[in-house]
Amino acid sequence: MTALSRGGPEGLRERRRRQRRNRMPLYEYELCEGECRACGGRFTLRRPLSAPELTKCPACKKPVRKILSGFSTPHKLKPLSVSDAKKAGFTVLKRVRKGEYEKQ
Fold first, then answer.
1. CA 87 from centre of chain
2. CB distance 56 to 88 below 8 Å
3. Residue 64 burial (CB count, 10 A)
4. What is the secondary structure of 5-52 as a DSSP string?
């Protein structure tokens, strides 16, 4: 497969940019009271961590509260190898004696 058929360097940059953009957490909200045709009483928004807390529904302007929701975990559950951990930027330590560790 050639670099051109995989999207090349430009395609790779675009995929990485999309992945960074998708790192914002999803927040679920529900109306404190009442019903709304626009939002259905519950809605989900992707917001940066630095955004101020949402207090009103963007559609109906009624007061809302953030609700706790489920989250997804990575599907790749195998443990990292030492080389994978180092590539990811982690410091790998090896136990020498009880309470003593040294870098690998």
1. 21
2. no
3. 23
4. TTTHHHHHHHHHHHHHHTTSPEEEEEESSS--TTTTTEEEEE--TTSP
Q: What is the spatial distance between Cα 53 and Cα 64, in angstroms, rounded to a whole number?
A: 10
Give residue 20's pLDDT band: very low, low, confident or very high (50, 70, 90): low
Backbone angles phi, psi at 30, to 5 degrees: -140, 155
Rounded to the nearest 5°, which phi and psi values hold at 82?
Answer: -60, -45
Give 28: exposed, middle or buried? Use CB within 10 Å, 0-12, 13-18, 19+.
Answer: middle
Report pLDDT digits (tens) over 72-101: 666 666 677 888 888 888 888 888 988 888
Contacts of 75 (CB under 8 A, 6+ apart): none
Domain ranges of the chain: 8-71
Say whether 57 sits in a helix, a strand or coil: coil
Neighbours of 48 (CB within 10 A): 8
